[in-house]
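Problem 12. The chain below contains 718 residues. Write out its predicted structure in token notation.
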Amino acid sequence: MTRKSLLTTIAFVIAGHSAFAEKDLPFKQAVSHKYTSTDFNGNTVLKKVVTDYNDNVYVLTDKGVYILNENKLVKDLRYTPLAKKIPLDIAIQEEAGHLYYLYEDRVLTNGYAGVPFKKLPAGKYNRLAVKADGSMLLAGNSAATLLKDNLMTDITLPPGKIKSLQVYNGNFYVLSEQGVYYLSGNRFESVHKTTNARSVTFRDQELVVATATGYYGINTTTGDTSFPLQTKTPAEGINDLQNINGSIWAATDDGVYMRETSGSYRYYASKRWLNQNKSIDLTSDSKGNVFVLTPDGLNEIEFKEQTLADKTSYFQDKIRQRHIRYGFISEVTFQQPGDLTTAQLTDTDNDGLWSAFYLGSQAFRYAVTKDKVAKRYAMEAFEAFERIISVNPLKGFPARTFERTGYKHSDPDRWHNSADGEWEWKGTTSSDEFVGYIFIAAVLNEMVAETEGEKKRVADFLDKILTHIIDNNYYLIDFDGKPTLWGRWNPEYINSFPHSVGDRKLGSTTIIAGLQLGYALTGKERYKTEAFRLMKDYGYLDNILTPYTAIQPTENIIHQGVNLGNGGWNHSDDEMAFLTYWVLYRYAFTDQLRQQFKDVINDHWKIEAPEKNPVWNLVTLGTTGTFDKEGTIWQLKEFPMDLVRWKVVNSKRKDLTFLEPNFRKQSTKELLPAGEYPVHRHNANGFNLDGGDGGKTELAGDEYLLPYWMARYLKVIE
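Solution.
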């Protein structure tokens, strides 16, 4: 099959994907917003959060009532007579949604033209609840009163210290240290006796009771247990329990969780979601957005309705605003954790590889939209790739990255001065970078380069690097005249490893893919001859065909101090392999090789399937036709909007099914949603439960853009 006929066949296959294309309909994604006030200090006590019928959000503190106004938490000064007064409690009226205030000696509301008002005995009451009919239940440490039609009726308190008052379906309920009671006439009747309840909420005919270790249900009609104590939850120490649109939400000492109708939990913890994990109160607005009160601030978990295209626009804008460094994609480093005003662009060890994801996304975007802006961004990134060769004096050697003299960030001992002294460049280039080079050369050639000049630029870039590698006996030779640590494809190196070590298979795969591409782009027979020599004389094809089930722990495989045999599964190798597969399959010399490579890709994809990685899925779709559509769409939707590397801890959760330690490092039976595990690039283990750097850095979002535009290109999304 000729190259032209191959591309025609692939185009036909891609067109066929439209039969199962997913329409890009709006979905809801959780997004975090954090609010505090300059008034708050270590001595400010935040007590309660409520929302009224206008979706105004109020926070009761020992300094008064604060309101969320224009995304700021400010003292509520709207009603001058109340501005300097400090309520003991606030409550939202059942159904009507008006805000009521309980002060030392009076109770009132600004609703109903301010008519509901009553002077009270000073210091007698400190809690308040209001029914739809306007009646109020007032309670203190030793007294309770029903205020109805401006008449006050004293009621004997139930036993035990009062913890909370609530209204549900026209009934007043009290949670005390001795149980849950409801007001029947002028006396409290027991609903459920318990001494360890910390909070209660209601759901249909069910009372849901929170304890220190979990929650359980009681049928309010029969008093029987409706469901047992749930202890396999993400966190313990429930401080508040709420029924929000039929789902149970819990504010705990270690974050907030919500139980879905499927029985699984969504866990909102770490500074990705909250200003601190200790959560003391919950409320929601009419849109279903949830507000979480912590000891020092208010947090909103907004369920934002958007399409994948909307999400894509956000990341594309974000990247252009703060993540482009000389054309490279760049993570940013914060001088203050998570503070965007202190963000600085910094180099990393793999600028070329990470930039390949961004350039790739713009190449696929251009192929789909023919938007000239996408082509411009792709070619701007390509300029950075061309510069890594010209910035250093070594013929055909690609530097890892470059920076103006004196401003390097990563691994300062690996840098060298450029000839003009104005720039520094970083050596020790690895096979990771090489994979990025062949991937961007392939997608540029296929999707972006339209003129002979543009195609020649791409071909020349790859030709220089491949020539350096072949002329130096299949090594990348650094400034010191020695091979870099990982830039090695020489048969003596590759075949020094047993087949059970992944580097033998991966190294063979990447260099054969590169030589195939070099031949296709330049027409130089040397690349084809060398590829077949490596495959036939040195067993590189056999290496490539090694099944992934053969990759196993292997003793005594040490390369320059690095354990390659017993270090566990290398997920960075998965990233390198799948980017390479796009090139390996689509530029195969023969139909027979292409079929063999297809089997290799499917073999690897089956191993990786539990991670539901959208790039791996889509590369497999674009080559072999196999993929996990549901997992791909799920991952794109769940990909978090906040890419700051906050510290995340999931290993202590009790709701997860943990697996025994294994070579693959799959920690749990099921993959967590991306918004709950640590932010990472595609070279990390999706089953890492803990991680982050405390908010010191932020990823760009190319991790999302590449699979999105691939999905559009392959007609998975319409």
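Discussion. The radius of gyration is 31 Å. Students who got a different answer should revisit the alignment rule from Section 12.3.
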